[in-house]
Amino acid sequence: MPFLFMKINTVCEDLPASDIPSFTEPECKPNDRYRPDTQGRFLWIKGTVNIPASMMESAYPLGLNISGKASMAAYIGGKEIGRNGTPHDRADREIPGLIDTIIPLNRALLHEGENEIVIAMSGHKGFLSLPNPIAVLAVGPFRDPTDYVLHRYLPALPLLGLLIAGSLYFGLLAYRHGDDRTNLLPPLIALFASMQMLTEISRGFVAYSYQFHDIRLALIILFATLGGTCLLAHVAARFARPQMRTIVFAGTLATLAVIYVTQSYDSKAAFALMTPAIMGAIISLVGIRKGLPRSKAYAATLTVGAFAIFKTTSDFLDVYFYYVVAALLLFLFFQQLQDMAAIKAQQAADQARTDRLELALAEARQKQVPSAVAVKTSGEVEMVQTEELVYCQGARDYVELVVTDGSRKLHGGSLTELEKSLPITFLRVHRSYIVNTRFVEKLERDASGSGTLSLSGGETIPVSRRIMPTVRKALS
How far is 320 from 311, CA to CA, in rounded Å? Predict the structure, then answer.
């Protein structure tokens, strides 16, 4: 069943709230606005609703649906049918009504065709001036008005979960990998988008008094601005890092100026993100001229994103806006994954270079001052130079040492104890083997995940599957 919006014919201002006017008083004027402006004033309004026979004959209960920044009392035929708060011509006497409510309509007071409704309304509370403070005055099915608002947001609720999850996951990823804190900017964009969306859909969960509507709108604008600032900072950090602070400062001022001159609060929130997106696209275009990597992808994505936000501005309650934001964040998170992969690869390469350097230094020290292993056998101690030691094989309570001349010596002790006394050039490749990496010629990996080391003397040494990644890294 459709809503029938009330046509407002006459508006009276500066009349007392105590008596219903005749609407012939000098203070009463023909209505020249689509919806009356109740902000900071008390009004009497008279309007009509043309009710068809199908609505009168339907089994559904009817109600006067009200959405706006005002307290109201409604009358039909001079009889009060309900109120939302208490409207009054004095601010201190007004009791704020709910931002969304419905007044039940008795069909006995209605008739098919044109029905006249008189409403007293005031909106003395609040600190923002909205261009259209009254959104809905309509006759329709009687149902909880928050259900209607929430129904429009239901398709966006999965996006809210994804935004929150993305913010937490990528925030933790950025914090744990890399010292560049600008990597936290994309997760922050997701966080502010989540808070903006949560604040937006709160109207569908909480029936709040109209004076809190201004706080809700201010928070939406704030979160949108913070998200837009983080977006601009992220692009500037990637393509114009030396000028990042200047760009963010100038971009924030430009965004605030656009927000200030824009009347509609839906548009304010949209422009708070669209303006930084446009500036980010311009910075990316400069990056293309400099030949910077990924600048083309950023320029295209931000341009399309800004255009999509502009196209969804007039339908801000719709979920399209948040789909656009989610698409932008998906692109940014993909870029961040590539950044993290590059960081990991660089860290692995740095570690490999460090390991090779340590190994080279250890070999140089060993050549300059050769170390030796004390071999205990038959009650005697023999010193074996480690540079001549090819590998060690553990066997229960002793260790067999294989030296370069092909001889084998038995050492009374465990392989683990011996490992502690060997220099860094020796690598534990198996629970029963320690190898001198100086004599390793080739590493082969088996289908099972284990492997085999080929030594310069022709011997082959098994490599366990568990230790295989460490061995490959050490020998790379």
Answer: 9
CA-wise closest residue to 399 among 387, 415, 388, 384: 415
* Residue 97 near residue 210, CB atoms below 8 Å: yes
Give 430's contacts (C-beta < 8 A, 6+ positions apart): 461, 462, 463, 464, 467
* C-alpha span between 349 and 184 (Å, rounded): 24
Question: CA torsion 262→266→271→273, rounded to 10°?
Answer: 150
Residues in a beta bridge with 51: 113
DSSP calls for 105-145: E-GGG--SEEEEEEEEEEB---S---S--EEEEEEEE---H
CA angle 208, 213, 215 (to 5 degrees): 115
For 31-57, the pLDDT digits (tens) are: 877 788 999 999 999 999 999 998 988
Number of H helices and E strands in the chain, helices first, is 11, 20
Q: Strand 372-377 to strand 408-412: parallel, antiparallel, or no bridges (unpaired)?
A: unpaired
The token duo for 224 is 């949108």
| Cα(341)–Cα(76) distance, integer angstroms | 69
| 3/105 Cα distance (integer angstroms) | 14
- pLDDT single digits (tens) 264-319: 888 899 999 999 999 999 999 999 998 998 999 999 999 999 998 887 765 544 56
d(CA 473, CA 452): 15
Strand partners, 445: 451
Report the alpha-carbon distance of residue 72 to residue 122 in Å, rounded: 7
For the chain, how far is it from start to end, CA to CA, in angstroms?
A: 73
Mention every residue, 6+ apart, whose C-beta is less than 8 A from residue 428. 419, 434, 467
Cβ count within 10 A of residue 459: 13
pTM: predicted TM-score of the whole model, two decimal places: 0.73
